[in-house]
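User: Teach me something about this protein's shape.
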Amino acid sequence: MALRWVDSYDIFLFDFDGLLVRSEELHHAAYIEMCRRRGITLTWDFAKFCSIAHSPRSNGIRDDLYADYPELREQEPVWETLYSEKKACYQELIENGKLELMPGVEALLNRIVEVGARRCVATHSPLVQVAAIRKQHPVLNTIPLWITREDYDRAKPAPDCYLTALKKLNYQPGERVIGFEDTYRGLEALLGAGAHAVLVSDPSHPQLKDGHTNSLTSVHFPTITAIGENGPFGENPV
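Assistant: First, the predicted structure itself:
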């Protein structure tokens, strides 16, 4: 029986972007397009974008865009307006090109269905974006509960999204909860909700090189596939 370790947990919590789907490249492209439409050439490469996006600063992209491109602030000092434009560009990219699932996602989700464990995605993405991506990958619809940005107050690293998920999943004390994230901010949110946290991120990802909060209690794998048959915590799951 494949992925037998899945039987050891009652609840599975997942991030979405960068964990279940390969979407970070599209977010980067959306910022480039948003700037292009305003006559500005965004020269950040993907590595720099990821480093800023996953830094401990909650407003890192806004602050650095305005610092590196003061003409952008002159055009539009209200960040919410620019961010809405970026979201519109991202939505267009989703609808015009299929996002890939990350390695190992389909097998893991199908195994969770087999054992009947409760599961949920808790994401910073809005409902409209999530719905468009789910249409492209039916296996994502095996996850019955989705917590999107409209459903909670404080963004990660606050644990609000995962606490909301656990409440909706009728979590009971003593149940074994495991969560998967691709960022340190996400790990902090999982740990704040009392879950056992697993980091899934390519070792070459800028966040792992920049020395961000890497003292968080977790285990690290480059892909979900790499977790293997023994599970993230070995033969003796936590």
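Now, about its shape. The mean pLDDT is 90. The first strand starts at residue 11 and ends at 14. If you'd like, I can walk through any region in more detail.
User: That's plenty for now, thanks!
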